[in-house]
């Protein structure tokens, strides 16, 4: 009788699949008849293997104006992370800041390309900060949203330090900081909000697992399959009466890496931590832009404005909705996720 595979093994296989494909490309390229044809394929596949980035991308350029800056910051020499910061052109007043946390198999350059960060920031009039996970901290470049408490706490503290540093140096609006991320980055964005709720005006997660639901790889796999829930009592005690920032969740309904049940769990977590304040019942509507995937929006209101929003995108897998073509974990056919996030964020502080 064949042994049954544990569910979490399949989850990690899905997320690591691009690395396996890269390895296959190396083998195929090595077998080609001419070195001239094999060279580019080998170089690309080798870069994928060495960097842990599924689609290595050149540093973002400033074709539309503004400027990109690269820096390193953290809690000391042994706890530093690289980051990219985009500042749009022609703005004199202090800007809001959107913190974008990439997913596994990505870095700041590839995620900037996937989300069209610079173009959206110019249109919205905000700065964009993209911290970058070090391969030394996680071989797959995943943010450590689960694990032993000291590991998760350190990861969150490093990101908080980067945000505060950037706001201070560039005179950005510390009262208008928003955090969001994809997959592991989405789970990390919500982890940040649960640890430092006063730091953010609103937060969001795209295709992310529900935070504070796992302390091991096995548990994380179950959480990603939608089989674990966070302990609300412990989180309520940690918050100590502090108010959580508004939340927006975006998830595809055919995501096979992180089950869409995680979107529901994240919403339930936020609504549960709002007690004794009660949000109004969810109000739903549907929308579609041309030939793009349709999506459904459900709002839970507090003080007559949306406080928690869930966006379900039909036909979207484990990918950034409306992302750039030829990028891993990106689906150009979906509605533009960063625009959806920004509309919600703007409404939260209007």
UniProtKB/TrEMBL annotation:
GO molecular function: hydrolase activity
Gene3D superfamilies: alpha/beta hydrolase
Keyword 4Fe-4S on entry: no
The entry's keywords: Hydrolase, Signal
GO cellular component: extracellular region
Listed InterPro entries: AB_hydrolase_fold, Esterase_phb, Plant_Biomass_Hydrol_Est
Recorded superkingdom: Bacteria
Alphabetized Pfam families for the sequence: Esterase_PHB
UniProt-recorded name of the protein: Predicted Esterase / PHB depolymerase family
Gene that encodes the chain: phbZ
